[in-house]
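F.,

This is the one I mentioned.
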């Protein structure tokens, strides 16, 4: 059996959480990541018959029975994942009852998965129906995106339109747009259900006055989606209060989308 500390998926989690912390997106225990792993890749490092303990997940995830995820721990700081992944991360498998997580590795101090597991697993279920290759769900508190939710209407079309207008590449990176939820209590099934409902249409979901969720095939793709929204939100917060002399017009957004052959939310433009 290979040493799990050499596993590429573990180093991806360590590098990504460290990067996000350095960007200032994940203060204290802010943010969480879940990454679906192939059974065969995990079996190279762990005995899959050895369950350390079981933890109820508080909802039913029948489509995910047998699926294995590496997930950040609740209350754990992204800052500390790199130096102590075995305490701050866990590898869980959804048990046959669909309501229990089997801990295969990690949460060494007796901890458990993120309090946002409902939003993560429900989003995985929603995205897998749209794209069987979806693997990653990422939640974080990027500063400018969060600032923008204080001053901008929380509406899918209006929020997406403003972000698309900020830089030319936005419509190319997320032609499917951004879903936006109002402020809600976090860490429960209700916000999980609302997030997953948005994930039927979007790979990005903003939580008003809280943060953002992204979903994608790889860690890079998912991080890149959120990074691009955050860049646009930074621009918005720099310019929103200034007189606007230039902007990308809707027919120009169409031209970009068509030049790249994209299927995009035409109904989000005012044509
Ligand atoms: P956890 O520490 O439970 O992952 O929660 C952090 C967070 O960002 C809540 O939305
Ligand atoms: Zn959060």
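My design for it:
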């Amino acid at each position: 059996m290979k040493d799990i500390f050499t596993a590429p998926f573990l180093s991806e989690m360590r590098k990504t959480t460290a990067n996000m912390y350095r960007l200032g997106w994940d203060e204290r225990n802010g943010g969480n990541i879940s990454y679906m792993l192939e059974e065969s890749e995990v079996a190279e490092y762990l005995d899959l018959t050895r369950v350390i303990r079981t933890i109820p997940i508080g909802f039913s995830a029948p489509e995910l029975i047998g699926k294995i995820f590496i997930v950040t721990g609740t209350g754990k700081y992204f800052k500390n994942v790199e130096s102590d992944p075995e305490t701050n991360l866990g590898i869980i498998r959804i048990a046959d009852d669909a309501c229990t997580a089997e801990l295969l590795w990690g949460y060494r101090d007796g901890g458990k998965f993120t309090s946002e597991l409902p939003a993560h697993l429900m989003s995985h279920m929603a995205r897998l129906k749209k794209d069987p290759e979806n693997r990653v769900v990422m939640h974080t508190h990027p500063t400018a995106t969060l600032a923008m939710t204080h001053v901008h209407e929380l509406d899918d079309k209006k929020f997406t339109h403003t972000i698309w207008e900020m830089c030319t590449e936005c419509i190319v990176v997320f032609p499917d747009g951004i879903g936006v939820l109002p402020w809600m209590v976090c860490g429960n099934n209700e916000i999980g259900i609302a997030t997953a409902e948005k994930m039927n249409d979007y790979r990005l979901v903003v939580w008003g006055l809280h943060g953002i969720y992204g979903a994608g095939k790889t860690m890079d793709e998912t991080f890149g989606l959120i990074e691009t929204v955050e860049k646009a939100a930074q621009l918005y917060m720099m310019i929103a209060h200034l007189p606007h002399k230039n902007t990308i017009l809707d027919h120009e957004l169409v031209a970009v989308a068509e030049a790249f052959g994209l299927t995009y939310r035409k109904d989000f433009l005012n044509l």
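Residues 30, 139, 141, 186, 210-211 surround zinc ion (ligand 2) (CB under 6 Å).

Talk soon.
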